[in-house]
Amino acid sequence: MPFLRLRIGLYAAVVAAIFVLASYKLYRGNDARTPQKDEVLIKAMLQGLSAVHYQPEQIDDNFSRRVYDLSLKRIDYSKKFLLQSDIAQLRKYQTDLDDQVRRGSHEFVDLSTQLLKQRTKDVQALYRDLLSKPMDFTVDESYQSDPDKAQFPADAAAQREEWRKYLKYQTLIRLAEIQEEQAKRDPKKASTPALSATEMEAEARKRVLKNFDEQFNDLMQTDDNDRLALWANTIANTYDPHTEYYAPRDKEAFDIELTGRFEGIGATLQQKDGQIKVADIVPGSASYRQGQLKVGDVIQRVAQGAAEPISIEGMRLDKAISYIRGPKGTEVRLTVKKADGSIQIIPITRDVVILEDRFAQSATIDNAGKKVGYIHLPTFYADFNDNGGRSSAEDVKRELEKLSHENVQGVILDLRNNGGGSLTDAVEMSGLFIENGPVVQVRSPQGAAQVLNDRDSRVQYGGPLVVLVNKNSASASEILAAAIQDYKRGVIMGSTSTYGKGTVQRIINLDDALPAEFNAIKPFGSLKLTTQKFYRINGGSTQFKGVTPDILLPGADSYLDQGEKDADYPLKWDEISPARYRAWNQPPAIDKLRAASAARVAASPSFKTVQDIVARMRKRKDDTVVSLKLASFLAEQEKAKAESKRYEESQKAAVALNIAPLPVDLRAVQSDTVKQNRVRRLSKNLVKDINLREAVAVINDQLSAAVTKR
User: Which keywords, in A-to-Z order, does the entry hold (predicted)?
Assistant: First the structure.
């Protein structure tokens, strides 16, 4: 989920102090009993949210209904477990949840947990029974695949019928895959005979059974801490989509996303067939240097140093990872099964793992003798706990310096799929392209907006600029894109609009906020809560609406209902007074650039194919009833494959970009082939990117216009 955070300053310190005070006051009553952890957590959260959230809720029946509705959506979104009789039992608490959180009771949570546990056991027996019998794919029947259009089953018989169709649909998908595998099979090279129709159907059911057994194995491992985290997060999310509760391990994942680093062994793990397998080794990590752990190894047991090992076989992946990760300098001993069947104990001393792919990278594009610089920024990363940590603004500044040494005549900054991050870095990065002045306005619930300025009059790069965005560009990405657009400093290009997240969050460590008398039941985790909204310097908010690009490009994500406006309980759009600023003295001729781009896009076979596919995807998205008849299903699959093939062929036919890594980057890693591959990978992945090619064409239009003016 996109996020945005300021460095800790005076306002942040005040917010934290208010939260601590509010949480502490909660327990200064006459109740002598010792509260339970769930009661402490929920009450502390609500007290703090009431004190410092941007738009605090009244804890009343309306609040209760919101929590109730979101809870049902979270615990059984597919509507395949709970029956209507279960919903009737839960509905009696629809307007009582506000009273329960005040009392510190949890009748609704207890009942929903009890019902879901029982229904999960019932459904496990149900799917195993249904998958034990052959299925008839000649019957003309259909399945509703959209949960929003479905109803909770009326009774056990209706639930069985719903699961029968659902499992038939899943088996149909596997059967189509198996038939395709058999069609590609070379009889001369095959060691076993071809499967008959009966055998293929049985194999399809077997694969579905295996998949569901793995899913239900994870479901059965849900414990009280998981349920408490889900309940706390559901309550938090009723305030807005970005107010969230983080259990301790979830906060760790958030920090990794923001900083691009963590402490551990540096191995990417996956769960398959109930086993924890090594999928990749991070170059330069502790595992990489130690050398014994290999891709494909199965980790069976984990020991903290010389302690007794713990078996992780069949364990949920996130829990297994929590045993393997740990502080820098500590030892973990992994009992590993190798590909040859041998068992080996591998000791690894944990260290800081740097995720290099999370950081800014650049390349150059040869555009008919003119050099264009390209910068890929996956996130606005910053390490708030380490003054020597990486900063996205500093890294982009460094990439611009390298590109200037390459004498580039234009720059493309790629913020596609960039979910945001550090607000401070967004402001500093915007300042690399303008002289000085306001970048964004930030407003608290009370008081006037604070204007965040670029105070550095230097312009790191002053030439033609294009910023690429899409529907997944959010938060800090929207701040930078909006500033560039408002200053008329460059051209924003992308599909329809950006995500639409215009809020600022603070993270409160609940262990710090709660008094020492609760140390025995810590840790509590953290609360990320919305405390401010940000606004463009023209006064408009990016909240809900996002940023509309200057030049629209057809995109595969155009058909998706994806963005802030599609989330549960988003804050609404509004506007404030504009800040005082002076636009760039040589603005791009947007109207002319837009017209020239539209003409190229209209004449492009590749873009025409994208537009056709998007139209069909939009239609298919609305048509959620699927046929369970094999012949009809395969016919639809053939149509989809034909569309996919047409798209792939159009991309292959597109003129390849002449894009290359920077010589300085290659020289820096010349002795490390793994790092060399990383540097080259960026260029290889972009060669056939038609949106990037159009961005280069827009840069070229600006260069041509500049020559004409001379």
Answer: Hydrolase, Protease, Serine protease
